[in-house]
Amino acid sequence: MKFKDYYETFGLPRSATQDEIKRAYRKLARKYHPDVSKAADAEARFKELGEAYAVLKDPEKRAAYDQMGSQWKAGQDFQPPPGWDAGFEYSGRGADDDLDQSDFFEALFGRQARGARQPGMHARGEDHHAKVLIDLEDAYRGAQRGISLRMPALDAQGHVVMRERRLDVSIPKGIRAGQHLRLAGQGQPGHGEGPAGDLYLEIGFNPHPTFRVEGRDVFLDLPLAPWEAALGCSLPISTPEGSLQLSVPADSAAGRQLRLKGQGIPGNPPGDLYAVLAIVLPPADSESAEEAYRAMAMAFNFDARESTRKG
Q: 27 partner at 20 to 30 Å CA-CA among 161, 286, 300, 303?
């Protein structure tokens, strides 16, 4: 996927006001409209203008796009960084159902494709949405956490600014990535006497130095010395709940997964914890170590390539 510089599409700086963006779009859209322009790339340019305007005209999409900063240039290989949109609050207004969206647009804004409601005299406020990252340990035990959310708005000069608010949130034990927490009445205020909307928090996990998560199951890499894998052993391993003793069977190969039933994220049923075995060779960095390896080579009638072919 290639990065798209929507400001460059209009020839504008990132500091451009909403009015400047609107004027640039109208001017270029007239120039490259397929029914008017004779340029060979008119249709493609018109499509690019439409996509860029769909983002920059909408304060929420523009703020999300700007949040990634200017470290990428147009045409560079790009993937949204993990958790790039965490803490960003949005209402989901401004869906562009008739827009032929690029992969780049979908990667950033696909989840915001919600239509806007027309408010009545006493209409309920719109629901808001945000993604928040929690620690894996919070899903095991439950927690009370303070979170900061950023919501875009326009200032008096027509620039997009971010307004921040803090909320205290109860993280329930057993919550999984992708699930949503509903905070009643924390969305947009209602119109007239209408009630406020709700805030939906999509849960994700902060990167963990030891564990990775798939659904309710949790995985960790377990380094073993060759003799531990060959002869078997019992050793302590760390889990999000504390330390457990794990028995490694003899003749265990690299990549084998040892399952600790019910030690994953709590639930009904709970997930499992998997120790993924990795064989770590001691370095031959001394004369005695080299001699030990030579003794192994003489003691075993073993061809690693032949063993792999047979497997």
A: 161
